[in-house]
């Protein structure tokens, strides 16, 4: 009988041997905290009075962990943690660079601000059916997507945030929520299914899904044309996630149907996950594909800016208007990817940071305005300035910030992108950025004037008197307006973070060496 040879593998070669320190656990803390918090809320689901305070406390801890992680990455460079002690590329890892740390920090901040607003508008039924459980799961999914170093794990976090966003959209008694959830679900499920299929195809050819390992193989020419073709499918899926034209119809049809706090969270985070995935795959992992696709991305960016601005002008429902403003901002961000150079990428990242904050504020502002007026229709609004001067001031700041006007934060990244476009002789793009800003100013100025300065309309006078705006509604709006103003007056810290994040994407060697020391 022939002997059978058995090859013994030394598993220690693929395992982490060093003990983990406290700083190492900080890498996964921003994801572990909301996951554990969501599980804890299920255990105390009948004690609904505890849900909001517990959730806000968890988000404060998240924010502290994210800030600590950002400080560590800023000082030390990219860091990673291997799951199950399996070294990359054998096991799944969390790999955090400046881009991921900055986006995760903003995620925690926006989650905290929107959670405070949510306490003023969600009812007992929504508490009972797990509003804050879905909320924390979504924050975990978004943060996990920003911190993972593995393409399949990125898909997993996409699924977590997608399923939890379904819950937030559908939670309520309004029939229009089901319609909006259906439209949102269909197109996003198409995108995630395409993503999953592409992940399987890439693994079949490359034999790895670790981003650093893929980056090495892409630069060495080992992957060949098939994987580059699969990269096109990834780009398509991520553009759909980012709501880029012409894949954007689902966003203005769905975001407005749920609570304003949920809409603000979606506007700030969900499309930015698509943008983040595009930055990660087209710049860090598959740079050749990014260079090849740059002209197409610039066309998509220009088209998205035009579509967003025209949709904003055509809308008379203020919450739908904000959806078009989100799309318009995605177009501005994609300009940086289309131009491709370091300055343009830093401008795109800076605008994404600005947009995450300001789009949340714009949705919260629209929610407060519609709650005061008793309607979402611009034609039925009016007289809000008299009843809430504080909201008037905050609203003016957020409108100016969204339009990219001084002294708010939107001015600086647009100026960087315009300068980068001029240096590449992309004069059409420069013109579209400027026209986009003008049309956005006109549309949001109209919303502001109709809502605040115009006299109360007859339809509104037949309703109950104006309600009193609670602190839980005004404080989040004011916080975002103040943050945007501070970002406009003192831009250097966050612009420096954007430059470092862009440099980290372009300098793949630093990321690769941090994740794969032997690579």
Furnish the topology, listing elements before pairings.
Blueprint: H1 22-25, H2 29-43, H3 51-76, E1 79-82, E2 93-96, H4 98-118, H5 124-128, H6 131-147, H7 151-170, H8 175-206, H9 211-220, H10 224-241, H11 260-285, H12 287-314, H13 318-339, H14 342-373, H15 384-387, H16 389-403, H17 411-423, H18 427-453, H19 458-461, H20 471-489, H21 492-506, H22 508-515
Antiparallel strand pairs: 1-2
Can you tell me about this structure?
The chain is mainly alpha-helical and 519 residues long. It has one domain. It contains 22 helices and 2 strands. The N terminus is likely disordered.
List keywords for this structure.
73% helix, disordered N terminus, two-stranded antiparallel ribbon, mainly alpha
Short characterization:
The protein is mainly alpha-helical. It is built from 22 helices and two strands. It has one domain.
Helicity, in percent?
over 70%
- Work out the strand percent: under 5%
Task: Compute the average pLDDT.
Answer: 87
Estimate nothing, just give the exact number of structural domains: 1
Strand order of the largest sheet: 1-2
Q: Helix- and strand-based class?
A: mainly alpha
Q: Kindly report how far apart the N and C termini lie.
A: 43 Å
């Amino acid at each position: 009988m022939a002997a059978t040879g058995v090859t013994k593998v030394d598993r220690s070669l693929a395992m982490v041997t060093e003990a983990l320190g406290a700083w190492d656990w900080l890498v996964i803390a921003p994801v572990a905290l909301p996951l554990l918090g969501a599980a804890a809320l299920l255990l105390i689901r009948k004690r609904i009075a505890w849900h909001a305070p517990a959730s806000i406390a968890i988000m404060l801890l998240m924010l502290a962990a994210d800030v600590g992680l950002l400080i560590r990455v800023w000082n030390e460079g990219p860091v990673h943690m291997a799951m199950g002690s399996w070294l990359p590329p054998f096991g799944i890892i969390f790999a955090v660079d400046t881009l991921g740390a900055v986006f995760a920090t903003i995620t925690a901040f926006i989650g905290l601000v929107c959670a405070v607003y949510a306490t003023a508008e969600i009812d007992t039924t929504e508490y009972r059916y797990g509003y804050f459980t879905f909320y924390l799961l979504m924050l975990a999914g978004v943060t996990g997507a920003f911190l993972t170093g593995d393409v399949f794990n990125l898909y997993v976090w996409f699924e977590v945030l997608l399923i939890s966003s379904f819950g937030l959209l559908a939670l309520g008694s309004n029939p229009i929520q089901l319609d909006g959830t259906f439209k949102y679900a269909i197109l996003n499920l198409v995108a995630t299914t395409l993503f999953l299929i592409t992940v399987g195809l890439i693994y079949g050819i490359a034999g790895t899904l670790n981003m650093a390992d893929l980056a090495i193989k892409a630069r060495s020419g080992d992957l060949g044309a098939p994987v580059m073709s699969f990269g096109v499918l990834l780009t398509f899926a991520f553009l759909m996630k980012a709501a880029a034209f012409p894949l954007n119809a689902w966003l203005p049809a769905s975001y407005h149907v749920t609570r304003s706090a949920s809409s603000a969270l979606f506007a700030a985070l969900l499309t930015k996950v698509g943008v983040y995935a595009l930055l990660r795959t087209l710049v860090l992992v598959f740079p050749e594909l990014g260079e090849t696709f740059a002209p197409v991305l610039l066309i998509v960016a220009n088209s998205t800016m035009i579509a967003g601005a025209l949709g904003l002008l055509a809308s008379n429902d203020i919450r739908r208007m904000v959806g078009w403003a989100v799309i318009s901002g995605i177009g501005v961000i994609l300009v940086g990817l289309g131009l491709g150079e370091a300055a343009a990428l830093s401008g795109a990242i800076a605008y994404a940071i600005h947009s995450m904050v300001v789009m949340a504020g714009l949705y919260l502002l629209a929610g407060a305005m519609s709650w005061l007026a008793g309607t979402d229709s611009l034609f039925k609004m009016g007289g809000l300035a008299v009843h809430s001067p504080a909201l008037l001031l905050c609203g003016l700041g957020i409108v100016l910030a969204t339009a990219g006007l001084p002294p708010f934060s939107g001015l600086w990244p647009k100026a960087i992108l315009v300068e980068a476009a001029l240096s590449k002789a992309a004069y059409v793009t420069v013109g579209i950025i400027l026209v986009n800003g003008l049309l956005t100013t006109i549309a949001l100025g109209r919303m502001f004037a109709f809502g605040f300065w115009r006299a109360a309309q007859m339809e509104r006078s037949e309703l109950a008197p104006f309600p009193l705006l609670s602190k839980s509604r005004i404080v989040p709006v004011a916080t975002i307006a103040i943050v945007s103003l501070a970002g406009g007056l003192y831009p250097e810290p966050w612009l420096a973070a954007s430059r470092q994040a862009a440099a980290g994407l372009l300098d793949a060697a630093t990321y690769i060496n941090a994740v794969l020391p032997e690579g």
